[in-house]
Amino acid sequence: MSFQVTVxxxxxxxxxxxxxxxxxxxxxxxxxxTSSFLKPACPARETRHLTPETRHxxxxxxxxxxxxxxxxxxxxxxxxxxxAMASIGFAIWGQARKNQRIAQTYHELRSMLTACSRYYREYxxxxxxxxxxxxxxxxVGMDGINRSVFFRLAAREGEGNEGNRxxxxxxxxxxxxxxxxxxxxxxxxxQGDALDPWGNPYRLSxxxxxxxxxxxxxxxxxRIPGEGVAIWSAGPDQRYxxxxxxxxxx
Length: 250
Known about the structure:
Elements: E1 2-7, E2 10-15, E3 32-36, H1 72-123, E4 138-140, H2 147-153, E5 187-188, E6 194-195, E7 203-206, E8 213-216, E9 222-225, E10 229-233, E11 246-247
Antiparallel strand pairs: 1-2, 2-3, 4-7, 5-6, 7-10, 8-9, 10-11
């Protein structure tokens, strides 16, 4: 006698075997259990017949399992986007740095004008070398050297101020005043020349003949009435006498 039982979609066929011990049966009945997987109920799986030559090979993967990560076109698109973002970021950073240097230059011009005015009020002359020449003002820094002016302003012994001859009271006019809302510290090279934020020497012009009109020669052929000193920087393009110059006058 035999009967069939379906378990998880698979059909089990149970055959009675009277020669088996009673305790070996199912639920106390002597029986012999065999399983038969029927194709309609449990489809057969695809199997690989392994041989000594193919035993080390891995089973084949589905077609979708072979793709991992991103493709080459996707990588190229991603790189292009990153380069575009980097170029935009560098452009913004460069413009911000340029604006910061321009603002710093204006603060330094104001600081130098204040120092020169204080020196003039103290000694009655401008901090320039030589004696005043009638009809001619003095321009300093055309040869890249302006140290003599700043040696006098800072009460520092050196070229143009040997023994503090031109600053006998030894007052450092480059030190910011206590009420200065935005104090500025100038930058100097090893020789003592004052440099702008781009590393170029400042150029200065003084009304050395005290005629009330400042005449600027060299980079500018202009006359500024009522001014005693003018200072300018080469600016971002680092060339004097262009529209990019940063000047203390309008």
